[in-house]
Amino acid sequence: MRSAGFRRTRRASAVAVVTALALTALASCGTSSSGDGNDDSGSGSSDPSAPLDPKTKVTLTIDCMPPAAKAAELREWNEDVKTFNKKYPNVRIEGKSTPGQCLEPPRFTAMLKGRSQPDVFYAYFTDLQQVLDNDGAVDISAYVDDTSVPALKDIQPQVLDVARKDGKLYALPTSNYTMGLMINRKLFTQAGLDPDTPPATWEEVRAASRKIAALGKGVAGFGEYSAGNNGGWHFTATQYALGGDVVDASGRKAAFNDDKGKQVLQQLHDMRWEDDSMGRTQLLKWGDLQKQIATDKLGMFLAAPDDIAYMVQQLGAKYENFGLGPIPGAQGTLFGGNNYMIKKGSSPDKIKAAVAWLNFKNLTPGKGQFEWARTKADKLPVGLPQPNFFTGGSKAKDDADRAANATMPVENFKAFMDNPVQGKAEPPKAQEIYKILDNAMSAVLTNKDADIDKLLDTAEQQVNQILAHQ
Asked: Is 212:276 a contact under the CB 8 Å cutoff?
């Protein structure tokens, strides 16, 4: 998955395949291979503040190079390697490509346990503890400053905080997301609703859902997950939006068995059974709601902005048919994302080279992943409101470049962009908690007589047992 936590559950299983990057491009830069990619040579300094010695030859293996099936993305990667090598001709980049999706959880866990991760490896925001438990990543605090990463001061503190443990920095971000309310603009218009003003409260969601469902022909007003850990993920997002929490500040006790948790389940129960505005097919997981809204059978659901790219590129939908508003309630929202870590045991030279690559590829407005004019020329999507982890001058530049090269009607996301909601990280033991909360979500959507108090009591007991064994 392209973002943190549960979202990995929609990834198809894939076998990792190692693919060397274009060797001819590297040869033209005058670099040489170290063979297995594990040896550095030269007279580099062990001082983290010292620049990488140009005489030091370094080979970096890097996760998540785009596969051959993504020709445009792979071409951009290779272009970036060539550009990077103009400044760092002594650094050889060897990409690792995984057919299908980049990170598949069982593979990731096995990789950590076998210490077979590449030098620079991709992870979700929620993976830090698992990586540290397996002694998998090096502390890069001394290598990351305003010189090595000039935009460092403009990266949202929250995005860097999830990469820290006990004051030490272990990762640099590549993307982020926050949850909002996705709408089908066509159905909103047909139902007499204003697609430029998505519902801002759950009362408004319920009212809009009724009007959209009244269109008939199998159209549902609002959709929700309740299987594959996805229901628990959305319970968490909705609980945050109401100002609640899932786990208390100690991280040792469930915090959702309260009035807000009851509201989450009660409003879904009422939309499903009293209003009949959620459709009769339930036990839905990631991909089901995307298909429904992309085919004009669903009016609204909670989602991250990058779902739009998936629906257009994979399902044949049109960008102009979707809008995005802040999550209803707006007292908080679930946030997540992806980052890169550097393997424990890497030499100082390898760490310096890795930070230099990550800065160029992922953290420089106008370069690498933020070279929006190139992205547009390659017919890839430009204009989605995320990733958007910059503040200050870096944000101003990136926003301007993104808008100038947009390939979609960015005004459809104005409500989301103009009303940012403070994100909250996923709870500890997120996947195990989400699996438990799936049961409560599925019960209220499949059983008209579900006992909400009992469901929450049971879930609380089970979550407390999990949290007690951290």
From this structure: no
CA distances from 425 to 126, 198, 382, 397 (A): 8, 24, 26, 27
Q: Which of 93, 95, 122 is nearest to 107 (CA)?
A: 122
**3-state DSSP call for residue 122?**
strand
Q: What are the helix (H) ranges across 29-181?
A: 71-87, 105-113, 128-133, 157-161
What pLDDT, in 10s, does the model give residues 34-44? 333 445 544 56
pLDDT (tens digit per residue) in 143-179: 999 999 999 999 999 999 999 999 999 999 999 999 9
| Contact call for residues 436 and 257 (beta carbons, < 8 A) | no
Output the pLDDT for position 59.
97
What confidence score (pLDDT) does residue 459 get? Answer: 98
Q: Under the phi-then-psi rule, with left for phi > 0, alpha for psi from -120 to 50, and beta for the rest, what region is 243?
A: left
Bridge-based pairing of strands 220-222 and 17-18 is unpaired
CB-CB contact of 181 with 328 (8 Å)? yes
Tokens of 428: 């500890």
Following CA atoms 263, 264, 267, 269 in sequence, which dihedral angle do they give, to the nearest 10 degrees? -110
| Residue given tokens 């998955």 in the structure block | 1
Q: Note whether 349 and 52 are within 8 A (CB).
A: yes
- In whole angstroms, how far apart are CA 236 and each of 2, 260, 268? 19, 11, 14
Cα–Cα distance measured from residue 129 to residue 321, given in angstroms and rounded to the nearest whole number: 39
pTM of structure? 0.82
Question: What does the alpha-carbon distance between residue 100 and residue 427 come to, in Å, rounded to a whole number?
Answer: 28
Structure tokens at 115: 């210490």
Q: What does the pLDDT look like over 327-369, one tens digit per residue?
A: 999 999 999 899 999 999 999 999 999 999 999 999 999 999 9
